[in-house]
Write a structure and sequence with these properties.
The complex is a heterodimer of chains A (about 450) and B (about 350).
Chain A (H helix, E strand, L loop, with lengths): L2 H40 L2 H35 L1 H34 L6 H30 L5 E2 L5 E2 L3 H5 L4 H29 L5 H35 L1 H7 L6 E2 L3 E3 L2 E3 L4 E3 L2 E3 L2 H7 L6 E2 L13 H30 L6 H29 L2 E3 L3 E2 H4 L6 H25 L8 H10 L9
Antiparallel strand pairs in A: 1-2, 3-8, 4-7, 5-6, 9-10
Helix pairs in contact in A: 1-2, 1-4, 1-6, 1-13, 2-3, 2-7, 3-4, 4-6, 6-7, 6-11, 7-8, 7-10, 8-11, 10-11
Chain B lengths: L3 H31 L6 H12 L3 H18 L1 H10 L1 H28 L5 H25 L4 E2 L2 E2 L10 H25 L2 H32 L1 H7 L5 H19 L3 H23 L2 E3 L3 E2 H4 L3 H28 L13 H4 L20
Antiparallel strand pairs in B: 1-2, 3-4
Helix pairs in contact in B: 1-2, 1-3, 1-6, 1-7, 1-11, 1-13, 3-4, 3-13, 5-6, 6-7, 7-8, 7-11, 8-9, 8-10, 9-11, 10-11
């Protein structure tokens, strides 16, 4: 295995792993806050128990996110030293601000997780609010660095190939930031809320119908439905950016081999790169042109034939990941509509719906990862789009295959352990205080742990 | 007025100091978890777990700060370090991942399997291993074993960081973190448990000066330029102050003035790192990369510098709030110990006040 491939795979595994925990670190605080807020307003203890349960899970997963994020901040340099030598002094501003946001998040999460008995309920809730805001902010800020790699701004290329006239503010506010940050941040809420919904739907599949399960599912599906519904709009803005600044990536996403006016939107199919065609796809006439130009059915959409082959990303990965993401996104919208309709007409006792909700837990995260593959594999062969190729950024260190094996093994070990712990944390509906007291009277004072 | 890049290098040193005092102590506490012995073994481990639980993640962020300062303000130096220290920094990452993960795994497995779950020893071992290797990296940038020409690293992937000075600094870093942790834990405990940690602290109080003394000939022979740096007129007082504070910390421990011992040991660490930084100046990587050579554009340096007062205006009150809440001084709280301490099965009889041990250790 070449150094370049090993470094890319190590980066992909580290990011794919971290991304799940980063998303949960953004999404879960919002759900926790909502549950705790309902408890504060209504005094219903199930919502307090819910918030406490979610806080526990968040504490566990946030820690993994924090340490895997640390690993990434090093790996940027360890695997891509020439990229960091070039880019560190330009896009570092995003990381510096992200550092503050993450610091705040870590501080207030500590307060939230360990402060139940030490803070007044309102102060505790406010700490959670700070966690939710700073968590989202740290994600948004890191995305500035990522979107800078897609469309680098804020510097001139000097005669020695290194940047001059660096303007870190211009780099921070690079034009892709807003659409990237919006699309990705919404994706974290989608992935998290459908995953939470899946947990409680699986409880309901086992016959639980109490307020704890129903309430948690409703809460998760509130966030899930809203965010899933607005996501296509955010995605469309993102595609508009890509059309303008990364036409190669857009052509790869659409498997659009020939430049044409009045281009159709292809759904499904399989790209045949050798023969430069998309097979077995359903094509909706002119729709791609309309979407790319926001209304002009005869707009010219650039095809891959306009770009040299050595500048193409991997068409199979980009196209199929894109289809997967879009397909799952719309499926999630469908499932959330199904849920709300069933709720409206009191038909929640539907095994099929519950099974779909359980499946949606995996779909959200799969869509998140697939979308990230589209962005990052679609950027290839560049590490900084149009400026530096990935192969020129890789470390000369000879040990990348070894570190790849080590990190992969470590991440597998952590994943397996986590799954085991999370499965053990499914304790069913926790008992409220009243129930615990009643039980301990019944059993003569010895406490009974929730089953 | 110092040039911009020197101020930012100073900020980097401040991040190293903060990381050593805060996260360093968390690592040291993990080492004491590994070495928990005697009749109060489980109580020792519980104290450690509850002391670092709410704060280790926040403490750890100082490392990210240092990394961000390095790659934003000194990108070429960071690139060279990433190549030369490819192997040890990967070890550090594995240590950081395993330490953090095992800590939360163990906490969540605790109800079922107690502190003896398989992740317990991993937590301890990673807490010993990580500061040692980080210390080796610090030693390596002073020892002259990393050679850089332009953007090329000439020295080997193992020889860059395995010189005698690197091993010595690694050992010193490990001992120093265990010393810090033992002293902090004395403050956080009472009664016999406190005596346990006091004995451990005193053990370190003997070991640190011994290793430090052994370090002198290594520095003189292996890094004569660092030695010249350490013996400059303006550096000697800093090093001497560190030594005096070290002795003072032992005296305070001996006479059971634990809070004073905590102040003294923290101040000693500050002085030692400050002394090293002054001696190392102007190099980031001795002898080929200086602060000035590696500095990023003035625009970036200014941005980083100006972000500091704003960032810290939010950060410092937040940190104060965190430490004071878990030190039991928060006025908003109903004063009661956390529920988990009153439950049956925790073994000990109300010995613990779940105190934050680091409240006023700034």
């Amino acid at each position: 295995m070449s150094n370049l491939l090993a470094a890319r795979v190590q980066m992909e595994i580290s990011l794919a792993f971290h991304m799940i925990f980063a998303a949960i670190g953004i999404g879960m605080p919002l759900l926790m806050l909502m549950a705790e807020g309902i408890w504060l307003r209504t005094g219903k203890e199930v919502y307090l128990l819910m918030a406490k349960k979610w806080a526990k899970v968040t504490g566990l997963l946030f820690a993994i996110g924090a340490v895997s994020g640390t690993a990434l901040s090093f790996e940027l340099g360890l695997l891509w030293p020439k990229f960091m030598a070039f880019a560190g002094g330009i896009m570092g501003a995003a990381f510096a601000l992200e550092g503050y946001a993450f610091f705040i998040e870590a501080i207030f999460l500590g307060l939230y997780l360990y402060g139940w008995d030490r803070l007044s309920p309102k102060a505790h809730w406010l700490c959670g609010l700070v966690v939710a805001i700073s968590g989202a902010m740290s994600g948004i800020l890191v995305l500035s660095a990522n979107s800078w790699m897609q469309h680098p701004t804020g510097f001139d290329l000097g005669p020695d190939g290194m940047p001059t006239n660096v303007d870190p503010i211009a780099a921070l506010f690079n034009p892709g930031w807003f659409v990237f940050a919006m699309h990705s941040t919404i994706a974290t809420y989608i992935a998290t809320s459908f995953a939470v919904a899946a947990v409680y739907a699986s409880g309901m599949l086992r016959g639980r119908r109490d307020e704890y399960h129903m309430g948690a599912l409703k809460l998760a599906m509130t966030v899930g439905a809203i965010t899933a519904l607005i996501q296509p709009a955010a995605g469309h803005l993102n595609a508009g950016f890509t059309t303008k600044y990364q036409p190669t990536k857009l052509a790869a996403m659409e498997a659009h081999f020939e430049t044409e006016r009045g281009a159709g939107l292809s759904i499904g199919g399989w790209p045949d790169v050798e023969n430069r065609e998309l097979k077995y796809a359903i094509t909706l006439p002119k729709l791609l042109s309309i979407m790319a130009s926001n209304g002009d059915p005869n707009y010219e959409v650039k095809g891959l034939n306009d770009f040299p082959v050595e500048d193409w990303p991997n068409i199979y990965v980009v196209r199929n990941a894109f289809q997967l993401m879009v397909g799952l996104g719309f499926t999630l919208i469908g499932i959330s509509m199904w849920y709300w309709a069933s709720r409206r007409w009191k038909m929640l006792d539907n095994r099929l719906l519950l099974l779909a909700l359980v499946a949606s837990g995996f779909m959200g995260f799969t869509a998140l990862e697939a979308g990230w593959f589209v962005t990052e594999v679609g950027r290839q062969p560049w590490v900084i789009y149009g400026i530096m190729r990935t192969e020129d950024a890789v470390t000369p260190a000879p040990n990348v295959v070894e570190t790849l094996i080590g990190f992969t093994a470590l991440y597998i070990l952590l994943t397996v352990t986590l799954i085991g712990i999370l499965l053990r944390m499914r304790t069913g509906t926790p008992y409220t205080k009243g129930e615990v007291e009643k039980q301990s009277e019944d059993t003569g004072g010895t406490q009974v742990a929730p089953a | 007025m110092l040039p911009l890049e020197e101020i930012l290098a100073g900020l980097g040193v401040a991040a190293i100091i903060a990381y050593s005092l805060l996260a360093g102590a968390d690592f040291g506490a993990g080492a004491w978890d590994l070495l928990a012995r005697g009749p109060r073994k489980n109580e020792q481990r519980e104290t450690i777990a509850h002391a670092i639980g709410p704060i280790w993640e926040a403490n750890h962020v100082w490392m990210i700060f240092l990394v961000v300062i390095l790659f934003s303000c000194f990108p070429s130096a960071w690139a060279a370090l990433s190549i030369a220290l490819f192997v040890p920094l990967h070890f550090v990452l594995i240590g950081i991942l395993l330490r953090g993960a095992s800590f939360v795994f163990r906490a969540h497995g605790a109800q079922a399997a107690g502190f003896r779950s398989a992740w317990g020893p991993v937590f301890g071992a990673a807490s010993v291993f990580t500061p040692f290797v980080l210390g080796m990296c610090i030693g390596a940038v002073s020892e002259g074993t990393i050679r850089v020409r332009g953007s090329e690293v000439l020295s080997g992937y193992w020889s860059s960081w395995t010189g005698p000075l690197a091993w010595t600094v690694g050992a010193l870093a490990l001992l120093q973190t265990t010393y810090l942790a033992a002293v902090y834990l004395c403050v956080a405990t009472e009664g016999e448990l406190r005596e346990d940690f006091r004995r451990r602290a005193l053990l370190c109080a003997v070991a640190v000066p011994v290793v430090a003394t052994l370090a002198f000939p290594v520095v003189i022979i292996q890094a004569p330029d660092l030695w010249r740096g350490l013996t400059q007129l303006h550096v000697i007082p800093v090093i001497l102050a560190g030594m005096v504070l070290g002795v003072a910390s032992i005296w305070f421990l001996w006479t059971r003035h634990f809070k004073l011992a905590r102040v003294a040991v923290a101040a000693e660490v500050i002085m030692i790192i400050l002394g090293w930084a002054l001696a190392q100046r102007p190099y980031i990587i001795y002898p080929d990369v200086t602060v000035r050579d590696a500095a990023a554009s003035p625009g970036m340096l200014r941005f980083m510098l100006f972000s500091v007062p704003f960032g810290f205006a939010i950060l410092l009150p937040s940190l104060w709030f965190l430490y004071s809440v878990f030190n039991g001084k928060n006025p908003a709280a109903k004063e009661q110990p956390p529920a988990r301490f009153t439950g049956p099965g925790t073994g000990a009889s109300g010995y613990v006040v779940a105190r934050r041990r680091g409240a006023d250790r700034q």
